[in-house]
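[Meeting: bench + compute handoff]

Bench side (C.D.) handed over the final construct sequence. Compute side (W.E.) agreed to return the predicted structure before the next meeting so the bench team could plan truncations. Sequence as handed over:
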Amino acid sequence: MNETMLDAVPSATPTSATPTPATPATVTAAVMVIGDEILSGRTKDKNIGWIAEYLTTMGIDLREVRVVPDIEEEIVAALNALRARYTYVFTTGGIGPTHDDITADAVAKAFGVPLDLDERAVALLAERMGRENLNAARLRMARIPRGAALVENPVSKAPGFWIGNVIVMAGIPAVMQGMLEGVAPKLATGVKLLSDTVRADLKEGDIGTELGQLAKAHPDVMFGSYPFNDENGVPNANLVIRSRDPEKLAAAKVALVKMLAEVRAGLAGAAGQ
């Protein structure tokens, strides 16, 4: 990676982009989507699901998503709340060239640092557009909070940035994905969440009570029920179990399969009476 990117981050200052230490077992994250266009429905978000899946495969738990308007004080308040609660905060949107792209302003304010015209970012923009074409609007994309590392943009060069435990990315899906893939090797990761799926061949209402009892009996395993209509149009459910412990996951699956068999047998017996 270019020396103007994450490798050049200072390691001792509070506003540096050094990854926040995390427990070995669990690393958490939040996503903050910034933009009036999302809240109005004019633009449909295509980033949240992709980020969630990507982080999960890395061993990072996405715990919260917030969508905030292009209002500086609301961005600052949400960011300060999230960065105090989670290992990482990933933001999308609001780092373009227009007047309402105020994410950099809000992040600088949240961290209490100046917002500078960053020569590293200027050089990247000039490389793509030519320095003679860097008007005031385009130079807005080179404003970076002091002390932040740049996050490489492999698509259009205009960088994101990483300050503290906050990683600021573009809202355009292809650009955001390239940025997240670029920072991924530097993220702390926890023990990956394992999962297994069992088809119930029962309606959710048939097993709701029993599923709750299993969840209490296996506190280190998460149980989820996802209803669907099967190939015959009959209501059914996929039961998904998740745990970081493979042995506990396996034990929960045995108990789940046993419970489903008992419920089916009970329903069959009642129908035959």
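W.E. noted at the follow-up: Residues 1-5, 7-23 have pLDDT under 50 and may be disordered. C.D. will use this when planning the next construct.
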